[in-house]
Design brief:
The chain has about 230 residues and is mainly beta. Helix content is about 10%, strand content about 55%. The chain is built from two helices and 15 strands. The strands form four sheets. Strands 4-12-2-1-15 form a five-stranded mixed sheet, with no helix packed on it. It has a five-stranded antiparallel sheet with strand order 9-8-7-6-10, with no helix packed on it. A hairpin with a 6-residue loop joins strand 13 and strand 14 (about 200-210). It is flat and about 90 Å long. The model is unreliable at about 1-20 (pLDDT under 50).
Length: about 230
Amino acid sequence: MPRLLLTACLAALLAAPTFADTPEPGQALTVYNNFAVVKDIRELDLAGNVSTIQFRDVAKRIDPTSVHFKSLTDPAGTSVIEQNYEYDLVSADKMLDKYIDHQLAVTTEDGSRYTGKLLSFDHNQLVMAADGGGLEMIQRPNNVRNISFTSLPKGLLTRPTLVWQVAAQNPGKHLSQVTYQTTGLSWRADYNVVINADDTAMDLSGWVTMNNQSGATYTDAKIKLI
């Protein structure tokens, strides 16, 4: 092969992206003792020049100050304008608090049904302005069978979520990488040694046990233990 052609072929091979150079969606964890760094690559739809993105399924014990967002599709033309970590998750009392001055329906253990506007509540009772007029004070403990809400109030989430305002010079589908730190992940190694009868050889086996209390599930994640 002529030297010029060989040099051109080598240059082309060096310039071509390898598997490692082409990230794919997925997660990777670097786990220390009760501490981990999470790398999460996902495809996000940046629909406009400024988009609101909800990034769900992050660890409940995330350190929000450690979050770093990067568009792998257009890193130079994409940036985060604002970031919020929303963890106001759904609970009965939070639902009731959001429904102050809104309509709901309450069914008690004896089958009675009350509909009206919720005025206030505490651990012991609900105070409602009944649809037919007047006030209803409904005892809560061991009395309320069901409370019906028309919808999930705005601002309540079922999972911890990072919310970004993202500016993109090139809107569309972006392969994006998010890294953050979280506590609640730890690991330990256990080893077993079996020695033969002559004490001349042995079998050594080892097991790694990981404990995940971070509040997230990492399906098929690549793991590095430090």
